[in-house]
Fold this sequence. Notes:
By secondary structure, chain A is mainly α.
Amino acid sequence: MARAELYSWISLTALAAVYFWFQMRMLDGWTIVDQPANELLRVYFLVITAASLSELAIAGVIAASARGAAVKRDERDLAIEARANLVERGFLIAAVNVVIWQALWEGALAGHGLPRIDLENLPTLFFVLLTILFAGECLKRMTTIALYRFQ
Amino acid sequence: MPEADDDDRALSLPVGTQLTGTDRFIAKGRVFNKIRELRQRAGLTQAELADRVSATRQTIIAVEAGKYAPSLELAFRIARVFGAPFEDVWSFDDAG
């Protein structure tokens, strides 16, 4: 297994664990819990810190395991990383656009039975945006794993 | 100079070596290669070939399996390791 693939597996697991903790703090069943801004800020810093530290630790361990290897990364690794970044970027653009359309066409969508995001509610907006970020990162790692398996 | 190093390390497969019998081109789409056969004839492991062309073993495995088509630069490096003409290692099916 390539080191980048191993990194993606471990990182995906760590991201899932951090997101699980995040959604435990934000959701009650399928309902987003109303919380004050200072509590959201605290959750935000905890999530970002946990995600960053876990990524640093995983990257450090993987880099240490590669010590002594003649070639650590080559053109295939870079090509796969580029494609995974492209997939993530496409997802983020699409997801942010959905949020923008939702915000702009709130009135138009209100008359329909479509699921709606209450963007005027701060916890909802916070949860949606962080979920998009997590989903983008997870998609990037899943794409990396798939490309290493099939390319 | 990497090119000189590659030439120095080129193996002594005769130029224009023809692979026959069970030797088959491995394909990535319409790009085919005979790396596995040439490597085995040269007595190289995948890791050794990877070191010689500055690639990872996983990339050599993927190329041999036809899952990854390398860049022109890597393709030329691989051919030089075997001391074989490019066309003997790689081919392209332009009729497909």
